[in-house]
Write a structure and sequence with these properties.
mainly beta, extended, 16 strands
Length: 202
């Protein structure tokens, strides 16, 4: 008999293609503004210069750094991060989920629309709440003041004088639920006795 047929050789597997590298992130432009100025509709990093600043960041996800004097910083649209740093500052988040950090000094922080994080920093600060699910990370009873939109209070049936009694302690935080997706959380606060709460027009 003839020799037994040899098996066909196994085909050589194709090598796996090398993974494509991740695309390089697009750098965020940095803009310096002294005094009064505007950003653009794109995300950018804005640095205030000089002894005071009034800055409107406009659209995009912006990072805005104030300076040691007075700053008025308006994030506009987008998810912004505003840093007042030193001095007495007014930070306005605008639309989007924003982070506002007043830094040192007596600051006014207004998250406005969206779910915002507000950090007063040092000094006696005022936090203005206008809806959304906002968190204040360092509210100090007897030092800081909370100011609420009266329309939210009226729609939830809560009188301004009774707001401090309507907070519930949840997971070590004081939470005020105003319904319709609106709430404010005072992180780490477990006793609201003496809490100063006002409406916008009191």
């Amino acid at each position: 008999p003839g020799p037994a047929p040899q098996p066909e050789p196994e085909p050589t597997p194709e090598p796996n293609p090398a993974p494509m590298p991740d695309p390089e992130p697009t750098p965020v432009p940095t803009v310096s503004i002294g005094g009064y100025g505007h950003g653009t509709d794109e995300g950018e990093s804005i640095v205030a210069t000089g002894t005071w600043s009034i800055i409107f960041a406009e659209g995009g996800d912006d990072i805005v750094l104030g300076q040691d004097g007075f700053d008025f910083l308006d994030g506009g649209k987008g998810n912004d991060m505003l840093f007042g740093r030193g001095g007495s500052d007014f930070l306005l988040g605008g639309e989007g989920d924003d982070t506002l950090d007043g830094g040192e000094g007596r600051d006014f922080l207004f998250g406005d629309a969206g779910d915002d994080l507000m950090i007063g920093g040092g000094g006696s600060d005022m936090f203005l709440y206008n809806g959304g699910n906002d968190t204040i990370s360092d509210f100090a009873v007897g030092t800081d003041v909370l100011v609420l939109n009266p329309d939210l209070l009226h729609s939830s049936g809560i009188a301004t004088t009774a707001v401090s009694d309507m907070f519930t302690i949840t997971n070590g935080n004081a939470v005020l639920n105003l319904g319709d997706g609106n709430s404010i959380t005072l992180a780490g606060l477990t006793d609201t006795t003496g809490l100063d709460v006002y409406s916008f027009f009191c």
